[in-house]
Specification:
4 helices, 12 strands, globular, 4-stranded mixed beta sheet, alpha+beta, about 200 residues, 3-stranded mixed beta sheet, Nucleoside Triphosphate Pyrophosphohydrolase
Length: about 200
Amino acid sequence: MTTVEHVVLVDGAGNSLGTAPKLSVHGRETPLHLAFSSYVFDRAGRVLLTRRAAHKLTWPGVWTNSCCGHPMPGEPLDHAVIRRLSFELGLGAQRADLVLPRFSYRAVMGNGIVEHELCPVYRVTADLAKAPNPDEVDDTHWMPWPDFTAGVLNGLLAISPWCREQVPLLVALGPDPLRWPTASDDDLPPAARVRLD
């Protein structure tokens, strides 16, 4: 029996509007929904880039940041980050640090499919990826953070639209990604402030 994955729909202020099946929301009229982006760094400050699997609905075969995804309804975002890193990359991360609590974007593919997400951004420190999941990831590459940001900011690297928008905001946090200030969960949009008892 296959479980249908649901996403959390939100309004412009980040309040929950309910849920919808993930496969039903990504199209030409994609509603705003809750997601996350994460950037994995090794101890040397290199960032892990991934190339999205060629069969994915949105931005297939495109290089992007380490891992993106959607929390399950009622799941804290940092838990979702760790869950997806394990599923997509075989990474056993211990924690995910919130760095951009209110990032959102809307991007349209050439075929008219829209991605529209309220997408807080997390930093994760982890060891090398062990087993990328071919259903999600076609390739991985570790790159020094300064080289990566220079390539994105100068338009020399082809990268996903959300990553291209996130990089200047991350650069503004400081030159060393391992020393970026972290944000409080209280800074998250209301729909993402999930507490587990």
